[in-house]
Amino acid sequence: MIAASFRDCKAWKSEGLPLSTSSNEACKIYDAILTQYVTWRNDENLGGIEGCMAAVRAADPNFVMGHVISTGLELVGTGSSVLRDERLASAVRRTVELAQSQDITPREKLHTKAIELFSKGSLSKACDVWEEILVDHPTDMLALKFAHDGFFYLGYQTQMRDSVARVLPHWKPHMPLYSYLKGLYSFGLLETHFYDQAEKVAKEGLALTPEDGWSVHSVAHVHEMKAEVDKGLKFMESTEKDWEVCDMLACHNYWHWALYHIEKGEYEAALKIFDEQVSRRCLKSGAMLDTVDACSLLYRLEMEGVNVKDRYREMLQVTQPHTEDHTLLFNDLHFLMVSLGCKETATTQLLLESLRELAKDPGENVQFQLAERVGLPMCQALLEYDQGNYSQTVELLKPIRYCFSEIGGSDAQRDVFNQLLIHAAVKSGDKRHQKFARCLLLERDAVRPNSPLTDRLIQRAHALHI
Prior knowledge:
mainly alpha, TPR-like_helical_dom_sf, repeat, Serine Threonine Protein Phosphatase 5, Tetratricopeptide repeat, 0% strand
């Protein structure tokens, strides 16, 4: 039996979010999955999210929302694609069939529709449906969190903020998971550059729930974007015991910690975090968030002149099986960093050619639609940089640099591509590119004053182009 604190049929109904099942156990397990998703934490006492997914199906095999949350989480995790994973494609079909064959609520029908759209890569339409649910049901945390993740993958920063702002007044402090809204809202605020407000809201969340890893992560972002390196290091260290229990987010928070060290030029300290935390957790979980973070750390260190070849080889075992998934361009770009770092030409070619093929006939898949204009030029730029064709890298990235946000992720995560453009422009033999590099560095210095990384790059540019 699952803990009594989770909501049963009656509790969900009294909150205006009735679930179409007569099984109290199924309702409680649904709540347990939702709680673990929002708190970024697999609860071993419950058997973790995976254990609960099996348990909810056992409790009521025909419970539509049990299928919606289980299949939805697999899709949102972006670790497998319905194009290449027949089991996942079949799970989506089963969810839709169940919804059509039963008398369920309009809200549950919309949830099913959103999952089906998301599975086809129609992310913005899926988000529209989740937003439609929230108009009538502002306390539907699943719709809110799925929309939040969808907007994140689309690079829709303003929507990520406003989606939470619209529902916040409807929530009351006694409601389950209330404090976690603070972290969600804070993240939207910081991605739209309201840094002080973002920090304030995140700290309100942490005052209520110190182990809220997403609020911690939001504060980490604020210090990153403002180049408050020492503040960031101190904050991560002083809160580590609270957030390391969030096993699904801890790796990402360690990634932020390592970024501060790279910013300061403390490469050994960054490598230590990579080896002891990021790499270890990534190899164990195989989760996409952990994977792209590991790829990104190595690439940033390599651009700084650190030798990470052996570590790339270790990462290849995680990224290579996903070469043809193409769930997100953001993921593809990070897998490419590893195949290039390992000189795995066949893997690199397979990734690029299979993506080009999908871009020819994108259908409603927003990632494939974006591939031709933004994704493939970014991929090609990584390839050119790897081959020492720096001027070509600049020519590919310069026209689309204000489109980087469209591949999704956060400002901090995408900064690796801003750095790539700067490094390529600095190294280019073309005098115009060298001038452009100086412009980019002045621009960076204005947005992020007192950044040691920017200062180093300015010095490098001067040394090369005196």
